[in-house]
Structure formats: structure tokens, C-alpha cells
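To the wet lab folks,

You asked to see what we're planning to order before we commit. Fair enough. Below is the target structure as C-alpha cells, and below that is the sequence we designed to fit it. If anything looks off to you, flag it before the synthesis order goes out.
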């Protein structure tokens, strides 16, 4: 028998209100995607002026930044004016985090989240309920526009730390979602998929590739999703083709970040990624300057929805390009391409089992790490390089070893942890969090 305490009742009411707000936002987004590009731009710039004005008056970091530059909110009237504001880097968020949170916000009552450390450098972010509702409603639009429906059975592969409790809507039998751990081996993934028989599968491309490869090699039948969503990593063409072929369905790729949620997604035309410009501004810059369409550029993002911790001109660390043409689907949302994002190496365990880099790229859960890189030297030897954070201790090392051993399915491996002053970038200019020194043919 369930006991309905005051606290439990309050939580149910809060969740119901949150889902009602989310549904209302989704209905607006479902309509707004078909507005003209100019109308959508007007909506975007109105929200931009609102967040700029709010940040100036309520966020210490931006107030003093504007003062130092002799700027006022009136100087930022449209997207082109954003270049008057310096770009915000991840290191600044780490160092200036308290100053980036609005003055009146109680952090203990805010919703916090930690990024997945795609560059080995995790961040802690803060949101209010409205911001989370915005992220979730955009996710719903993405989901339904790819052909999903309320009665779908959904399987989502992720870190157990990301598992979410069922919402009121899910308790009623809608959007029924089952979370599966990336730490399980492929055999267990297959068993679960056969048991659940999902309509929709969502996961990292690296996980989806491993599952597709296993199904193909073992001639497994009975896993027939109608839709597959890939997320959180770049989706290479060879992996997309493999997933499409094995599952005989469409892969819909999504792009986003923990800071802003999913904010670019493929429609059924697959002409690129529609940007959710009702909630974000994406700038495409090279050496701080705007580039031409289709030209590779660094992505700099401004969020228009999070009034607890506004992020203005944030260098997200990925590369992409924008497209001038409107999608043939008729949506007014502009298009972009993803060129570079999270591309880490697969790992091969002593047993020969291949695992996704996502199995071990979760050291953001460990206190005391400022930045890290994980290097597989041989099948049974892994080196972890750590730049110490303020809370570094002996427990940091032991906890990091525990996380990696768990991700490596507790196989017999040697894990060495060394502290370093600097982690060098790759030739591409990016810092991969997971690197394998094994020959790539060992995996592919």
C-alpha cells in the first residue's frame, strides 16, 4: 500500500504542473516550427533582448563584464550585436560559476547537472524548472516530428546516473521509457531488446553500432524498432549505414549538449539539422569572425531559456557550418551541419569484448578532477591522466579507478592514474577524453 505523505503529494503536484507546462510549450513549438524564417528570427531576437537585460540586472558576472566594456543591454538589439560581448569559455564557467548564477537564486533549490566531460573537463550547471521544461518540450518536438507517438515503447541507453524516474504521463502508459545501462555487455543489451521489443531505440552511435554489429554477426531476429535516435556523439556515415541496414529503419540524429539540451535535429528529409532558434542562438565563427555558409566554424551558443544560469556566447567546443537554404520539409527553422563533435575511440577488453568509449567517459562523477584523459595502452592496460581540481584527494584516484573498472565490465585490467599539469590537444586541435593506442583494425 502506497502511503501518500504531504511530501509525496507535493512532489506529485509539482511533477503534474511541470508536465502541464511542458505540454503547453510543446504545443507552441509544434506550431512555431512552421513559421517563416523571418518571424522565427523576430521571436529569437525578442528573447535575446530579454535574456541580455535579465543577465545584466541579475547576474554578477555579466553586470561587471558589461560595465568593463561600457556596454548596456540596449547595445544588444539583435544577433549581430552579440559580437560586442566576449566569448565565454568552459574554464570561465568552472572558475566563475557562483558569479554566473542569478543573485536571487538559491542553488540548493535549483536543479543541477554535470556535463558528461566530452573533452575530459566536466562542468556543473544550474537550471530552474522553466528551463528544464523548455529542454524537455524541445525534445518532445524532435521526438514526435521523427514519427514517434504517445504509445511507443522506448529504450534509452545511457549512464545509470542519467536514469530518470517515471513521470505522471509515463505512469499512465504514455511514452513508456526503459533505461538500459551502457555498462552492460552487448549480450545483455540484446536480451533486453528482445524482451522489451521497443518501438524506439535511443543511444550513443558507438553503442548502437556495437549492437547492430552483434545482431548482424549472430543473425539475430526479433528486434524491429520503427525509429532509432542517435545522440551525444558524432554519427559517422559508416555507422549510420550500418544501423539503417541492420534494423531496416531510419536513424534520426540529434545534436545538443548538457548546457542547452538537444537543440538541432534531423527531420524526415535528412537535409541537415534544424536549429531550435526559439530557445538558442548559434553563431558560426572562425577566429572570432562570422563565416560564410557551408564553411567550417566553431560553434558559439547563447541560451535564451535558462534564467538561473544564463550562458551567453558560450564556446561549446564543436565545429559545424550553417546552411542558407530552407529545408524542403517547409519548416522555417534554419539548418546547420555537424562537422566535429565528440569522437572518441572504442576500447577492446582482454576478453576481446569491444566497448563504447561512453562506458568509461563518466569521470565527471568524481570529485577533485579538473580535466582528464583516458588512454588504452594495451588490451589490459589503461592510463588515466588527471589535472587536479580543488577537491582532489586520495579518494579521487580510487574513485576514478572504480568508475573505469566498472565501465570495463570488471575485467582483469591494470589501471594507472597519473596527475599532470597539462593535457595536450590532438592534431585536430581538440582534446579527446578517450584514446586507444590499439590498431583500429582490432575494433573494425
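Sequence we intend to order:
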Amino acid at each position: 500500500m502506497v502511503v501518500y505523505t504531504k511530501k509525496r503529494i507535493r512532489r506529485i503536484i509539482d511533477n503534474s504542473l511541470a508536465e502541464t507546462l511542458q505540454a503547453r510549450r510543446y504545443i507552441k513549438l509544434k506550431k512555431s516550427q512552421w513559421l517563416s524564417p523571418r518571424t522565427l528570427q523576430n521571436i529569437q531576437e525578442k528573447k535575446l533582448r530579454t535574456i541580455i537585460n535579465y543577465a545584466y540586472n541579475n547576474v554578477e558576472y555579466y553586470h561587471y563584464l558589461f560595465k568593463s566594456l561600457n556596454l548596456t543591454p540596449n547595445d544588444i538589439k539583435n544577433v549581430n550585436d552579440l559580437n560586442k560581448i566576449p566569448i565565454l569559455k568552459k574554464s570561465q564557467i568552472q572558475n566563475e560559476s557562483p558569479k554566473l548564477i542569478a543573485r536571487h537564486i538559491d542553488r540548493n533549490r535549483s536543479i543541477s547537472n554535470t556535463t558528461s566531460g566530452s573533452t575530459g573537463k566536466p562542468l556543473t550547471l544550474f537550471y530552474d524548472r522553466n528551463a528544464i521544461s523548455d529542454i524537455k518540450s524541445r525534445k518532445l518536438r524532435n521526438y514526435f516530428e521523427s514519427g514517434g507517438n504517445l504509445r511507443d515503447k522506448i529504450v534509452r541507453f545511457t549512464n545509470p546516473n542519467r536514469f530518470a524516474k517515471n513521470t505522471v504521463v509515463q505512469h499512465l502508459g504514455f511514452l513508456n521509457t526503459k533505461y538500459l545501462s551502457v555498462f552492460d555487455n552487448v549480450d545483455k543489451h540484446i536480451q533486453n531488446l528482445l524482451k522489451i521489443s521497443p518501438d524506439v531505440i535511443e543511444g550513443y552511435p558507438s553503442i548502437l553500432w556495437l549492437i547492430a554489429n552483434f545482431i548482424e554477426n549472430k543473425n539475430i531476429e526479433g528486434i524491429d524498432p520503427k525509429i532509432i535516435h542517435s545522440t551525444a556523439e558524432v554519427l559517422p556515415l559508416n555507422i549510420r549505414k550500418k544501423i539503417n541496414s541492420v534494423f531496416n529503419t531510419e536513424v534520426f540524429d540529434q545534436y545538443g549538449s548538457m548546457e542547452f539540451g538537444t537543440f538541432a535535429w534531423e527531420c524526415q528529409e535528412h537535409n541537415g539539422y534544424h536549429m531550435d532558434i526559439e530557445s538558442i542562438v548559434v553563431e558560426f565563427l572562425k577566429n572570432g569572425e562570422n563565416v560564410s555558409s557551408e564553411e567550417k566554424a566553431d560553434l558559439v551558443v547563447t541560451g535564451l531559456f535558462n534564467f538561473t544560469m544564463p550562458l551567453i556566447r558560450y564556446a561549446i567546443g564543436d565545429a559545424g557550418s550553417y546552411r542558407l537554404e530552407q529545408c524542403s520539409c517547409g519548416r522555417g527553422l534554419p539548418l546547420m551541419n555537424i562537422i566535429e563533435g565528440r569522437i572518441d575511440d572504442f576500447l577492446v577488453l582482454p576478453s576481446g569484448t569491444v566497448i563504447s568509449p561512453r562506458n568509461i567517459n563518466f569521470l565527471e562523477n568524481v570529485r577533485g578532477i579538473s580535466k582528464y584523459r583516458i588512454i588504452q595502452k594495451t588490451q589490459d592496460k589503461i592510463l588515466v591522466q588527471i589535472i587536479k581540481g580543488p577537491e582532489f584527494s586520495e579518494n579521487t584516484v580510487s574513485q576514478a579507478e572504480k568508475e573505469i573498472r566498472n565501465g570495463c565490465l570488471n575485467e582483469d585490467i591494470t589501471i594507472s592514474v597519473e596527475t599532470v599539469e597539462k593535457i595536450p590537444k590532438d592534431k585536430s586541435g581538440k582534446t579527446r577524453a578517450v584514446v586507444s593506442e590499439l590498431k583500429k583494425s582490432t575494433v573494425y
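Structural context that might help your review: The chain has two domains: 12-73+81-342, 347-442. Residues 347-442 form a domain with the GMP Synthetase; Chain A, domain 3 fold (CATH 3.30.300.30).

Thanks,
Computational group
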